[in-house]
Amino acid sequence: MKPSLKIDLIQFITLPIKSLKFFGIWVFIPYPITSIGFWIGVLVRFVVGISIFIIPTATQFLYLVTLIMSGNAEISEIAGIINLVLTELLTSVRLLDLRLRRKSLTQLMDQLVNIESHCFVDAHKEILETAMKKSRKLYLWMLFLTIFDITVHVIVVPALQGFQTLPLKMDFIIFDVNDENYFKYICAYQILYKPAMLTTFVALLSLLWSFMMSIIGQLDVLIYNFENMNGLVEAMKAERLCDGNEAFKEIFKRCVLHHHEIIRYLTTFQNAFGGQMLTTLILSATIIGTTALQILSIESPTKNITVIIWVLLFLFITVFILFGDCYYGDIIRVKSSQLATAAFACPWLNKRNQLKKNLLIFIAKCQQPLIVMTPILVPVTIQTFTLVMNWTYKGCAVLNQMKK
């Protein structure tokens, strides 16, 4: 058996990274600090950060404050603007968190590349390539849906109304956005900034999920080794001209080292993305609650079917984002717990006592599944998703009663 197969595992994350580089907001600047290229990169990030992540969110928040202070606002309108502000805030916080944790991200990317050394049969390559294709397809589908959403909300719907109103509500304080001298410029600004904002959000989300899918792929490789131990042992015996005990020992040693690398990889992943997952849990729960309140506050629902459909779609997307984090975290938990069963099922009863002892220790260790955790030790699992949705429902019910 080959010691390793050449697999370009960095393909798990190339698409979201290219998207961030396209908008000039990737967390690394590939130039020395003394070069002009570095300072141009700093300037680009400063301009993009102000124009895409600060001005839009701040002006929408100011409009929200003005609307509330007027005393004439409907709850559904207030809730809708809160949702947009929180969504953009979530994107900005996730990007800032990734920037602050770029050292952990560098370590994670290095470990992603180096962990390929534990793949030594063609089946391992097929497992990981399948996982890579799934991660890339997921990103492309999310990007397509984002483009569709932007086209409908920011371009098509306002165009059908003759662009008489802005696609997004903003308040710049120093001038009236509805003034004909500024209106067309603000409208063009919104059409330009919104794709960059949502594409960044999709890229950050896909980056996180791609790393989680790479962990799942590595666990699948390890499970495959134990489920096909007989074939691997026979291949090792033929290659090294050794007995069954020595072949089993070598394969098992590789499995133990691989498991250790997966644990180290998961720990680095938590250091790099734990803050983003925690932010998603908190803000997504808030957005889900305010969106549900927005639906309940729409007057004459039968006359506003289109509005209800779009708000329900927004609610579905928000729930999907929260569910995605918890789903992939739960898959990691389930896959890691299957290792103990797969290891116990492999042919070990007729091996030497030392090999039996080592395998039993490994099985005992695998009985404690790998749990993806946030910085405040909240597990990212389906159980957490259910708990968050339960508390969100209760919070929405309370707010709805207060509204009445």
From TrEMBL:
Indicate whether Zinc appears among the record's keywords.
Answer: no
**What residues form the membrane-spanning segments?**
20-40, 47-69, 75-96, 138-160, 201-226, 273-295, 307-328
Alphabetical GO CC annotations of the entry are: plasma membrane
How does the protein's chain sit in the membrane according to the entry? Answer: Multi-pass membrane protein
| Keyword list, A-Z | Membrane, Olfaction, Receptor, Sensory transduction, Transducer, Transmembrane, Transmembrane helix
- Any GO BP annotation: signal transduction
Q: Which Gene Ontology MF annotations are present?
A: odorant binding; olfactory receptor activity
Ranges in a coiled coil:
none
Location in the cell reads: Cell membrane; Membrane
- State the family it belongs to: Belongs to the insect chemoreceptor superfamily. Heteromeric odorant receptor channel (TC 1.A.69) family.
Q: Check the record and name the PANTHER family matching this protein.
A: ODORANT RECEPTOR (PTHR21137), ODORANT RECEPTOR 83A (PTHR21137:SF42)
Full protein name: Odorant receptor
Origin organism is Eogystia hippophaecolus
What does the organism's lineage look like at the top?
Eukaryota, Metazoa, Ecdysozoa, Arthropoda, Hexapoda
